[in-house]
Amino acid sequence: MKKRKKRGAERLSEFFRQFSVRVESGLSIPETLEIMQQDDTDREFCLACRKLGAFMTEGKTVGDAMEETGRFPEPAIQMIRAAEMSGQLVRTTARLAVHYEKEHRTEGKIRRAVLYPKILVLMMIFLMLFVFLEILPTLEPILVDVTLPLLTRILMGISHFLYAYRYFLPV
């Protein structure tokens, strides 16, 4: 079986929440999936629901159908299988919805936490380029007659190199 892209935590949460509410309200699982596949906001979501429904009409369990689609994470599939055996499908899908909501919030917090260091690194790169391309070339005429330390000569060499190839830097 080919590996396909897994569903995002937000989409998984939405799927399990809708599934849980609809099945708990008395709809059968195939009816629930049929209603869910009519959601036109996410084409991939519709296809996953359609495949789930197709596999279930072949007589597969919900867990096996989820595995066949290749769109659901393994822990969720195993929990659905256990829930089917114990008769706790609605309760388990509600818990999975809560779990994936928390996972989505955590992913968002991580993305926001990593954004600040990324901005700092980008600013540092631009600052270094400014120093090498603007400041050091303007200081060079002043330092022509002076014997410079090795580190300063290396920095001036880097400045010359970057200045000579400055048109290739954006690439």
Describe this entry's structure for a reader.
Helix 4 (62-69) runs antiparallel to helix 5 and helix 5 (74-86) runs antiparallel to helix 6 (89-139). The longest helix has 51 residues, at 89-139. The chain contains seven helices and no strands. It has 171 residues and is mostly helical. The model is unreliable at 1-6 (pLDDT under 50). The two termini are 40 Å apart. 74% of the residues lie in helices and 0% in strands.
Topology:
Elements: H1 9-24, H2 29-36, H3 43-57, H4 62-69, H5 74-86, H6 89-139, H7 150-164
Helix pairs in contact: 1-2, 1-6, 2-3, 3-4, 4-5, 5-6, 6-7
Please supply descriptive tags for the structure shown above.
171 residues; mainly alpha; 7 helices
